[in-house]
Specification:
It is built from 14 helices and 2 strands; from the N terminus they run H-H-H-H-E-E-H-H-H-H-H-H-H-H-H-H. With about 300 residues, the protein is an all-alpha fold. It has a single domain, classed as Farnesyl Diphosphate Synthase. A two-stranded antiparallel ribbon has the order 1-2. Strand 1 and strand 2 (about 85) form a beta hairpin. Helix 3 (about 35-45) crosses helix 7, helix 6 packs antiparallel against helix 7 and helix 10 crosses helix 13 (about 270-290).
């Protein structure tokens, strides 16, 4: 990871002083860095003698550049001033600069793959960018009517969250010349991890834990998540009418939001969601079980466990 950090910072260098200031700010406020870790662990698990190549480092850098670009753009789209407890780029440098910085990061990521002839990496990340955009727009379209089904919910989170983690695990496999079948398998593994990760995130909305975002924030933003979708599909028409009215017209009323949360808990929304999350976790574990035991496989299992056990 230290070697990756140095290579990644190098990839972000530019001749524009303002851009370098913004890049420096971004690099020093990075998150958990789960995505590059997935690239490296999958590559090491699959490679001969657990050796990785420059292509693996480039793949991890491409992912991180694209991921950072999407975060910068997301903060503009969501009109959000904070990211991981720090000011967002748009809060410090305004929307215009934030959008241009996101565009710069996106082009840097794509060029890093093109300049090295890593066209398989380019395809993996380009598909992820397309799907993330589609997922975001699908969520916006469905949020207006609150008519989201469980199938649509899973399609949204597969595209919005899981597709990028899937691109990490596929990129790791591709970087060490794994077969198409193995790359496909690792892509599915990453997808399962990503879906479980997002379900866990949605569950935080119904817990009292101090996680950095207030309870009920998804309800306030009229985001239809699995606990709520399940209860809406399994309650009486009268209760459904009350729930939809509450989410649509009383989502800023703290008392009403608490009542929604309690209703979801009392009607099995949380237990159903936890069971679904564990099913995705089990399916991901089953894929890993097909590979020989190693420290890297064990580390991937630990990361998979962390996804559903994390406290924030």
């Amino acid at each position: 990871m230290e070697l990756f950090e140095a290579k990644f910072q190098n990839a972000m260098q530019t001749k524009v002083a303002l851009l370098n200031r913004v890049m420096h700010y971004l690099v020093n406020r990075k998150g958990k860095q789960m995505r590059p870790m997935f690239v490296f662990l999958v590559a090491k698990m699959l490679s001969k003698d657990n050796q990785i190549t420059e292509k693996t480092y480039r793949g991890a850098s491409v992912i991180e550049l694209i991921h950072t670009a999407t975060l910068v753009h997301d903060d503009v789209v969501d009109d959000s001033n904070r990211r991981r407890g720090f000011f967002a780029i748009n809060a410090l440098w305004k929307n215009k600069i934030a959008v241009l910085v996101g565009d710069f990061l996106l082009s840097k990521g794509l060029l890093l793959a093109i300049d090295s002839g890593d066209f398989d990496s380019l395809r993996i990340i380009s598909v992820a960018v397309r799907e993330m955009s589609e997922g975001e727009l699908l969520q916006i379209e469905k949020a207006r009517k609150l008519d989201i089904t469980e199938a649509v919910y899973f399609e949204i989170i597969r595209q919005k969250t899981a597709t990028l983690i899937a691109s990490c695990t596929a990129m790791g496999a591709s970087s060490v010349a794994a077969s198409d079948e193995i790359i496909k398998k690792m892509h599915r593994f990453g997808e399962l991890v990503g879906i479980a990760f997002q379900i866990k995130d949605d569950l935080f909305d119904y817990t009292d834990a101090k996680i950095g975002k207030p309870t009920g924030i998804d309800i306030k933003e009229q985001k239809m998540t699995l606990p709520l979708i399940y209860v809406l599909n399994n309650c009486t028409p009268k209760e459904k009418k009350w729930l939809i009215n509450s989410v649509k017209n009383h989502n800023t009323d703290k008392k009403r939001v608490k009542e929604i949360i309690q209703f979801v808990k009392d009607n099995g929304g949380i237990s159903y969601t936890i069971a679904k999350m564990k099913a995705y976790h089990e399916e991901a574990l089953a894929i890993l079980s097909e590979f020989p035991d190693s420290d890297y496989k064990n580390a991937l299992i630990l990361m998979l466990d962390y996804v559903i056990e994390r406290k924030k």
